[in-house]
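Each lists chain and fold; for instance:
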Amino acid sequence: MIEALPSELVLQVCQNLHQSDCFHLMLCNKFLSRCCRKRLYQSIIVDDESLYLDELLEDSYYLRDICGVKVYSSRVKSSYGLKQLIKTLTESDMVSLIQRIEVNQDLGLLRECIPRMTNLKCAQLPESGVLDAPGLRSLRTKKLEGFNHDLHELELTQSCKLTVSDFKRLKKLSVTGITSTSLKQYRVTLSSLFITDGYKLKLHALTIKSALIYPQESQILLQAVDFSKLQVLRLIDVFEYPTLSLPETDIKWEELRVSDFRQWMSRLSDRNRLLETGEMLLEALRPQVKGLKVLELQVCNFLADRGPQFISSIADLRKLVVTIPWQNCVDYDPDARIRAYLQSISLHANLRHLVIESPPIDLPLLELYLSHMKNLKGLKFCVKPIELAHFVSFIQNFPELEFLDVVFDPLPFNEFQEKYIVEALTPGPLQYAKISNSIYDMKTGIIKGKYIMRWFDEKLTNL
């Protein structure tokens, strides 16, 4: 009899069931109903988006993390379903079962229920002031209100000043420099994101998105974070700005990116205004991050690109996502810059995932610097048109490659050329390939779907 089994064991089986299967199972008897109910209410996603998921995507969409444990989530996707959920939570003790809540819309009627979710461990909400969960460990929100100082993971999706000493247990932190007014969105500086007061966060993972960094502001980051245990660093869409010897210049740095950079540089030269730079962000961080395992690098500096030196200073990366800047740089020599990046990347022979966002690269250059990376499972790059057999031979160098994303520029391949590549690579380990704008299952052919691209991009770097 199944009732003789420990309820914990049955719950573990239920964890692997999708929402609809769990509903059907709980109708069998009272014992299964109790076990399945825990599964259904453990993690809930409230989403008003009309979402049809291909079978291929179900696992990646519904699977969520609760303090290191992967669980399937139940999804409430209609106004009727939300009202039924609120009614159930109001009239029963089911609210105590919820350990994770994710709301991707306005809180609305849920605003009254969330304070009763006192056993929450993880929350993803547009606002955090409604929370009253002493055991909360992970939070994703736009703004901190009534926050929990025992958080281990914190992601801020809009600009918000963080008092470092208030979060002494943080292990993962993500901040963004994007803020908005009623008229527009704009970026804020790094100094607007941290309030340092002598304490350093001992982080394992740090993400900074869409921030402006002025000279010497890198010191703020060094004062806020202890990098000795950092394993993951993501600097995404970050812009560094230089200083001028004549501060009375009328240049507005925030508008520099959309102005005519070359003309601006020429004007400075005509007036004999010499550029000066303080210590740049990547220069300041280089001695601190030698033990990184994961790096996502998208930093634009208008005067000098320190990306290759930064990558070279790290001992042994396992995942690298890098954007090679090729516009609005004083030292505008894209070929030399690409070669410098590839040289630095080639030092990390144990890479498992490599994504290179760049202008088209000559295939012989890629062969020279990447062919020895036998552990790659995910690879993305942009290549100049080349003989198909030559390209296939290059990809076959990677005995563990499962996901491939390649763009041929400026001339994308036609359907017959793509078919040749797929057929030539099918006998190997490759499972999925994105060629130009088509995604192929190497066994069944082209796969399509509204969210297939999102799924593929996630798998490319998270196998």
Q: What stands out?
A: The radius of gyration is 25 Å. Residues 152-348 form one domain. The longest strand covers residues 232-240.
